[in-house]
Amino acid sequence: MKHALKIVLACWLSIFAVPALAEVGEDGLHKEDWFSLTFKDIREDIDSAREEGKRLALVFEQRGCIYCKKMHEELLTDPEVRDYIKANYKIVQYNMFGDEEVTDLDGEVLTEKTAARKWGVLFTPTILFMPETAPEDGTVVQAAVSTMPGAFGKWTFLNMFRWVHDKGYETDEHFQKYHARVIEELRASGRLDAE
Predict the structure, then answer these.
(1) pLDDT in tens, 69-105
(2) What's this model's pTM, rounded to 2 decimal places?
(3) Residue 10 placed within a domain
């Protein structure tokens, strides 16, 4: 009886186990162990991501950001979201008010906070999706194939990563139409009641 109780308890814990949450670093940003630590040279990071068979995405966050916390605690702990992003993207984290050096595609060396201003990042989290190949000239904001300002619900968040990965920005299917189509497919399959 005691052994059976242990098995039932172990099964219950595995079903209701809470995924490990990202630690908060000294800079006040949540740290995912699968985010990439780089020298923040955008051209090198795009090349490195491509060599890994992935796309580069830059995520801007700030200390005390409740939406960044939501992204880490609700979205990036969801196995479907996390596993898709880990398999297809190299994520590099930026502190919107940070002082680490960043090298833009045009060669200009900036701090994270001056890069945020130059690239028009106003909200956190903001995710900038980079092209598969670095352009010959221009800046990050000119090269970005898409931008996601803010943390959304699971399907909007995940579908943006899928849309970029599938190069939806090169087609006539705008993200909103793509997202609506995917939501309808999820409803039809019974995986989703409402978004």
Answers:
(1) 999 999 999 999 999 999 999 999 999 999 999 999 9
(2) 0.86
(3) no
- Domain residues for the domain of 27 are 23-151
Distance CA 7, CA 74 (A): 29
Residues 174, 154: Cα–Cα separation, whole Å: 19
Q: Which residue shows structure tokens 């959304």?
A: 152
Which residues make beta-bridge pairs with 90? 56
Q: Rounded CA gap, 85 and 80, in Å?
A: 9
Q: What is the CATH number of the domain that holds 48?
A: 3.40.30.10
Residue 4 lies in a domain: no
Q: What is the dihedral of CA 12, 15, 18, 22, to 10 degrees?
A: 140
Per-residue pLDDT reduced to its tens digit, 92-145 = 999 999 999 999 999 999 999 999 999 999 999 999 999 999 999 999 999 999
* Cα 132 to the center of its chain, rounded Å: 16
